[in-house]
Amino acid sequence: MLAIFKKYRITTPLIFYLYNFIFTMEISETSYCGIEFEIKKNGFSNISYILIHGDEETARMLLSEHINENQGRAFFIKSKQREVPLGPTIVDPNRIFSTIGAKKALKKFKPNWDQNELELILKELDESRNIFLFNLFPSEGGILIALHNNFRGYNVNSEIENSQLYSIKKEQNPRDFIICTNLNDYKKLKQGPYNIVLQNIMEEGNNGSLSWAALENDVRYINIETRLGWLSQQRKMLKFVETKLSK
Ligand SMILES: [Zn+2]
What we know:
Elements: H1 2-7, H2 12-23, E1 25-32, E2 35-42, E3 47-51, H3 57-69, E4 72-77, E5 84-86, E6 89-91, H4 99-108, H5 115-136, E7 143-150, H6 157-160, E8 165-167, E9 177-180, H7 183-189, E10 195-198, H8 210-216, E11 220-227, H9 231-245
Parallel strand pairs: 3-4, 3-7, 7-11, 9-10
Antiparallel strand pairs: 1-2, 2-4, 5-6, 8-10, 9-11
Helix pairs in contact: 4-5
């Protein structure tokens, strides 16, 4: 690289400028219907990452260290809780990425709604969602990687009936697994040591999780889910996914 600079007699300030332009971490913010996110952008890459559940500390730690060392954009929800305030209630932020999912999520902690108030907030979500997703989604052909942790018994077996294909590894803990939405990605990833499921058909009555919005928009989506506290396991899985899919 230095040889190129020498060859074209690029001056020191220009090198400095280019270096900063390519490698400096840029920090900004965005919101989805008032739910705030911090964005860390490291250089240029067609990978976006997201931490959407604020109480999943292992995933937060991993994503923080990962974005310092790898190019891409990482979205961190600015909350320490799983559920976040939305209008007069709280919601799981990973259940509002479809209108049908959002309707169910909004009623979970507030069963009785004034119909007009509910319709209004659903409309606001629809509008805000498109803007948020446009920002979040990687450029064409890129990958969106979501990092999650579980601590309530949720495991890969809970996803099998919603999946088109799956590969379960006996020696792996069922609570550590990968969900993907692209058949080619699935074929590459299932060769590895980890539990994996493919969900590439849109569900009509879906639960509003980000994976469905990614699928609907033809964005390759990967969810890397591990037990809370199992940082090294999740780090290995993330490295495996990126290495396999970069080939
Ligand atoms: Zn989660």
